[in-house]
Amino acid sequence: MPFFLTKQSLIWCFTGRIPSFLKGSLLRLGPGLFEIGDEPFYHLFDGQALMHKFDFKNGQVTYHRKFIKTDAYVRAITEKRVVITEFGTFAYPDPCKNIFSRFFSYFKGVEVTDNCLVNVYPIGEDFYAVTETNFITKVNTDTLETLKKVDMCNYVNINGVTAHPHIERDGTVYNIGNCMGKGATLAYNIVKIPPTQKDKSDPIEKSKVVVQFPSAERFKPSYVHSFGMSDNYFVFVETPVKINLLKFLSAWSIRGSNYMDCFESNEAQGVRTRSRIVLLILRAPIGMFHHINTYEDQGFIVVDLCAWKGIEFVYNYLWLANLRANWDEVKKAAMMAPQPEVRRYVIPLDIHKEEQGKNLVSLPYTTATAVMHADGMIWLEPEVLFSGPPFEFPQINYKRFGGKNYSYAYGLGLNHFIPDRICKLNVKTKETWVWQEPDSYPSEPLFVQTPDGVDEDDGVLLTIVVAPGSQRPGYLLILNAKDLSEIARAEVECSMPVTFHGMYKP
Length: 506
Hints:
By secondary structure, the protein is mainly beta. It is 9% helix and 42% strand.
């Protein structure tokens, strides 16, 4: 069995043939360390950030990985304990300090984590590993060395930014986060970071807020994981899952709370969808993490997203104790969780009050509706594009069809919150394709287009598969994006933890 050994990594073997046009790197981020000394982390989003890299060159592939040396990681390794509070794990004061030092440490304010385990994306000519706080971490994507920590609060009025920005063809980055708005109320800011500067200055230094709009509740902004963007509009879904800011600021430092303790659901609130034009209401509340695509067509904005029915926070089901339970207990808990759907909402742009009670959507290819009520609010009903096992972590041919009318979405199929298949969905015909193997757990599939490709799905999907029961428990998988047939796989002779998001760097 052939293997390829470099100073960086060991690829035990690969089967098939690596496409010759793959000449870059697959970058992935996720949790890689779940306990420090005798102290465990409790939530899936608490594990310390580990970056993975598969390099493609001359038809071969090598694997490399390193922990991101964030403050959270370095201090934890140095002190052999959890030092900074994470998503679901509270950091207690140093037990070696005397009782007075420990008491006063509770009143120093919130120390926000920089554990950047969620995603990686480019800003100018640099690359940043990110989570959902105000801290992003610059990394060298060739060596995976950690370069510096950047606090976005130094440049714009923002409490944090999402791990899912939109990046235009020229490199301009748009992102969203909550902030303190006018009259001491919570608001949301759309932040713009310009592309590479001619004078080689840092684009982050020229960041600015381009849109601000208020939160529905004064001290309770919605949890925001992603947003939609078309050629001319931003679309933001304000869900009933809220961050209680007062609890965050007070109970955190006095009672020892973590991020999860500060979330609550507003059962009375539906879902408000905002564009630059009008406030719209969805009839039934949903949870939502990932937008799939947003585009304009014939006077309408089409918004496709992965929805979870109801108001319960899905992250409540991702405690490590639950995921490590026996399979029957995992399935039992998941049966009580919100149920998922891929949905399409259509927002009308040309609105007249005399059209009350009428479906304003006239696009011929969708059953989604938008009806104006007497109070001027427009109630949206979706078209269900897919209903079944959860379709999540969606990806599209983003470079060519991001913000455009498109046909194909790719994603993870979840079996009771466990990813066990790769799915392809035709959003126009609702046809589906599936790749699946026993005891194999893939990650988010990233689309890479064939250079001379004509069709939207001319390309490959790159995913990392964890196979804990096998002799070699992890591998890179390359699939044909047209039919999900296997092109090649490269097995790694080491255990690989789950990854969340990432990118292909040409």
